[in-house]
């Protein structure tokens, strides 16, 4: 088994997608939530102008030690500055620990920090898009709302604060080695990207043997 945090541990399909995204993106690239820096270093090694960014000091220490010639900086999505626009932002499994209520604002900030025509590529754990696949979860949520509200169930709120049918598929929390993470239905994430102003260019899903279901979406900030 390859060590997590190395390119050898990444799937060939993911490497091909990220490399294609980078090759087709003009301008500087940001690896947002770069962790130990393997993707940043990989893209820098292929000749791209790329910076890795992560809020975890421990990850940055590992990244700088392992890749001393690559640029890394401290910060998270909330530290993105529209005055410093990027040609492309890679958020590869870096949004999975955000509270779902914070994801719309994070996507909007990414959109604001891309140049016109800039391209964002996000990777995340996928959940089932089908409402019928979640009847027990929906029922549990409705029962909980009824208990909390003293017997009068109120409409649930979507991640962007809008009311929605409790049968609509939403993010699912699950235990993760670092902190609680969330699986997102790809359709729901795509909708949030569009609400943030993005145009969708490409999406894909798959389940590799021994791995959780994966999804990736490439989205563009139109000029």
TrEMBL record:
InterPro entries: Methyltransf_25, SAM-dependent_MTases_sf. Keywords: Methyltransferase, Transferase. Residues 133-176 are annotated as: Disordered. Residues 30-118 form the Methyltransferase domain. SUPFAM superfamilies: S-adenosyl-L-methionine-dependent methyltransferases (SSF53335). Coiled coil: none annotated. Residues 133-147, 154-167 have a biased composition (Basic and acidic residues). Signal peptide: none annotated. CDD domains: AdoMet_MTases. This is Methyltransferase domain-containing protein.
